[in-house]
Structure to design on (340 residues):
């Protein structure tokens, strides 16, 4: 069964790459030549931002970022592209298939040093830090899954194929005493995963993104859900080895049917990435545009509220591009740990 999942996921991941490549081709010609001059800076006339699957927070946040870039950088049209998420976006940046990509810092920290499943050090850099990514695990109420340990032997969606969710899902599960092979991993987008949960095809779903998660809100309109709490002792043990996983309390009533406070965790801050060799002046301009228009992004999606002076240049183990560092230094929000 697990092998069948791998084959299906390779096909699905490959289709996403093809779609992104077709989108690049539709821009017309060699992208290296398709630029506009913006006050002396050469900027791609068509900017692609790879996000994640529809249903999570990456895609709408990426869409909001694309809109502010389009609205504020003369002659530039930016678009958000659906993808399977962080892992694939890092590889697409390396291959030159996209201009920018969103990724979870838990995954990027491994990519930039060639650790984990990354076969080399990938030349990507952070542009700006965005929102936290709170991982919530839900099941159908009365379905027999009410705690983390109940996941053993169950069918559990653990994110889209190629998204790299295993970088934070596996430590969370293992920290609660459940081995990765103790349950059947199903790889689906968040929107599809919730549909599978509602019809009983899977037993539990990992949902990541900004609270309140749109897919959970939608599901609670028709189904009673069980919210699986994290164990505080387990979280302390997990954090000792994975400092990007931070405890988060979701207040009671955030979701329909959530009667008490829910102990959860930020499984890694989302960041906008760019190729490390990108033109510093272009990256400076895009960073400045996003930061100065963060209120417009927040109006378009709640995740934009986390683009703050305290979070935009967070030091969380991923190097920032020199163009971004220059902007953050100019406006005085660069933390001391990155100042030199």
């Amino acid at each position: 069964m697990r092998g069948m999942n791998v084959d299906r996921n390779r096909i699905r991941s490959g289709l996403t790459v093809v779609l992104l490549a077709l989108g690049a081709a539709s821009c017309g010609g060699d992208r290296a030549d398709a630029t506009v001059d913006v006050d002396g800076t050469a900027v791609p006339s068509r900017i692609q931002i790879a996000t994640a699957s529809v249903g999570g927070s990456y895609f709408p946040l990426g869409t909001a970022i694309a809109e502010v870039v389009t609205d504020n950088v003369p002659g530039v049209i930016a678009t958000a592209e659906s993808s399977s998420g962080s892992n694939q976006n890092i590889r697409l940046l390396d291959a030159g298939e996209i201009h920018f990509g969103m990724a979870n810092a838990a995954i990027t920290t491994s990519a930039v040093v060639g650790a984990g499943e990354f076969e080399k050090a990938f030349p990507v850099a952070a542009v700006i830090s965005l929102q936290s990514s709170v991982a919530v695990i839900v099941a159908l109420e009365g379905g027999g899954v009410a705690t983390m340990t109940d996941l053993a032997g169950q069918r559990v969606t653990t994110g889209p194929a190629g998204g790299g969710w295993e970088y934070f899902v596996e430590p969370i599960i293992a920290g609660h005493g459940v081995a990765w092979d103790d349950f059947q991993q199903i790889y689906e987008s968040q929107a599809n995963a919730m549909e599978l949960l509602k019809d009983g095809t899977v037993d539990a779903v990992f949902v990541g993104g900004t609270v309140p998660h749109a897919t959970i809100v939608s599901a609670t309109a028709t189904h009673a859900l069980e919210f699986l709490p994290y164990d505080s002792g387990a979280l302390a043990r997990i954090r000792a080895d994975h400092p990007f996983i931070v405890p988060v309390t979701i207040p009671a009533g955030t979701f329909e049917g959530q009667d008490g406070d829910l102990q959860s965790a930020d499984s890694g801050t989302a960041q906008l990435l760019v190729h490390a060799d990108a033109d510093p002046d272009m990256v400076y301009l895009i960073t400045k545009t996003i930061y100065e228009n963060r209120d417009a992004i927040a109006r378009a999606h709640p995740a934009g509220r986390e683009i703050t002076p305290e979070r935009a240049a967070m030091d969380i183990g991923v190097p920032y591009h020199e163009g971004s560092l220059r902007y953050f230094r100019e406006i005085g929000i660069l933390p001391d740990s990155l100042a030199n």
